[in-house]
Amino acid sequence: MVYCRACQLGQLAPLPSEQTLAELYGAREYYEGTDQVGYAEYLANASHFRRTFGTKLRWLLQSGPVETLGEIGCGPGYLLEAARDLGIRSAVGVDRNPWAVEQACRQGLDVRLGSVEALPSDRRFDAIAMLDLLEHIPDPTAFLRAVRARLTPGGRLLIMVPNIRSFLARVSGRRWVSFKIPEHVVYYSRRSIHLMLTRAGLRTTAIRPAYQHVTVAFALDRLSRLAPTMSAYVQAPLRALGLDQQVVPVTNGSIDVLATVQADSERR
Known about the structure:
The chain is α/β, with parallel strands linked by helices. It contains ten helices and ten strands.
């Protein structure tokens, strides 16, 4: 990895080929793998993902109503389901994984195969969500400009990306859960994501630490990678008390970001 101390952006060098990335993201195993590549037990944790995504959508809705929502990298469609539950009238998702698209369509969701180019060309969105996506994109500036072109004037962008400057990343070092190579090709910080969005014609309006809903057992499993003795010490009593399956919000070392399309006057 190469890292810029000035803008706090990290990037793999050399970048993996498009063929390598396409094969990685297109395989069904991407959602049935390990945390080193793809996701472990993604379907088994569906209810937790819906709860997490619903919380993020409610944060988005605090900045104004959303009637049309697009999601890039929607997977099996859990955020789109949360959007439907929150009364968002029209939601469209795209994903590069054929199996995930099939799963989402089975739930009656409008999901297409592909990336930003697969969003309906005749439609502009009040908001676009990209959660755990931008770290996968080798040319994020060009990608964000393409996303901006799909937003209405004043449209909003909801992003979640791993934060290479987070406390969790610093204490984890090389064992940080978001060091997933070659899957994650760009690593952001608060500073670098703000600079990237500005370059693409988007204005950052809010940044906050990201949380996800997981079971206590899941959180302790991640803790065991950093502090195995501590994790082992607390696992047994929690399991005995039946608390290991309780769902709690935990930090994941990422950041949630809200941005909006800049007016032409702001860009000059």
